[in-house]
Amino acid sequence: MTPEREAVLQIPKRDENFSEWYTAVALRAELADYSPVRGFMAIRPYGYALWEGIQAYLDRRFKDTGHVSAYFPLLVPESLLQKEAEHVQGFAPQVAWVTHGGAEKLSERLAVRPTSEAIILPMYAKWLLLLQWNSVVRWERATRLFLRTAEFLWHEGHTAHRTAEDADAECRLILGIYRDLLEDILAIPVLSGVKPKSERFAGADNTYTLEALMPDGQAIQAGTSHFLGQNFAKAFDVKFLDSDNQEKYIWSTSWAVSSRLIGCLIMAHGDDRGLVLPPQIAPYHVVIVPILGKDEAKVLAAARDLAKTLSAKFRVKLDDRDAYTPGWKFNEWELRGVPVRLEVGPRDVAARQVILVRRVGGAKHPVPLDSVVDTLGKMLDQTQKEMFAQAKTYLDDHTTPADTVDAIVRALADVKGFVRVRWCESQACEDTIRERTGASPRVIPLDEKVSGNCVVCGKPAKAWVYYARAY
Ligand SMILES: [Zn+2]
User: Fold this and answer.
1) Which of 83, 369, 439, 454 could be stapled to 467 by a disulfide with Cβ–Cβ 3.0 to 4.6 Å?
2) Does pTM top 0.85 for this prediction?
């Protein structure tokens, strides 16, 4: 047996051991690898191409809405980090500290940024729409590729506004952009809304969030946008001169999505054969596998012509390595999740056709050479839609209403996923549910009117809230 064929067979069945399946896919699909630094991962070119796709989409949307990129220092002086009390308390357990420069002990410890509010805010004094693409460090005990690593990639947006309304509108605008990324590009449906107080970003007055559901029934936070109120402005004394000639504190926001999304992508769509990528984000839309034999030169020439023609419209990989059999290549590209495989052999060349095989579904379609561009385009569109629809059906089927705490426990055991309940917004009732169920409140939906009574105390409900076990 060839090593790659063996590799495919070595992926555990997804529904038998989800965690081992996940790690095997991340490694075997060559997305990322462990590194010599404990807790830190290396992102391999195929995984980084996914990140570049996310960056390209978001960066265009950010620029289109008036944001500009900048770059700020990696290190944050301890005195600055400490200025916003809740903020420092929230991050303290995960901060890595620089204490020496060479042999010289520093007079003040420097934090490797866990996030950059404390270094960016004091450096600008007016309303600005800034973002930076960078990495941050948050010390972790356990490592799970993309999902939990001490360093991860993200962008962080930081904006300052004249009024609370403007800052809130910014948070919602960004949440909408993140939602488009998740649903239209990554084909992952999300619940959107705000976090309950206990789950907010450290130092924020409000945290908007997107929550996705993974096939093991656990929720994952896919993007957040924080309304920071005037907390940071007051801590760092950032004021502006308003039109009434009064000095006022700015209203600020911060927001991010991270390379964790690649972990979501693996989990949301993968199957027993490995990764399945939605066409909108796939580094290659189509892989061309020539089936050599007799007329080798003719087949290779046809494959190269096809690669050239299709490259005008699609992201194409021609796999003409001669040390591997076609069957071996089929397995490898399935494992790596390429949406469509194109096979071309001597008989196809003679018949002026190719064979297209979708990663989702897998049936072989003979397609005349003249209509390959057209058919491939349609297949990719169809794949994108089907992948979203399938994930949406899963989300809907795994969202259960519950009117009692016992019903929450039952739903989490039987159905898994999200449980939708009425809540009076008291911390005591939230704590009761956490203790009884092991689930946490993930999101309070916006614009969903509630009537009826709190699932715990029976007092009038003030909000709907979705509970789930979470990553
Ligand atoms: Zn209650």
Assistant:
1) 439
2) yes
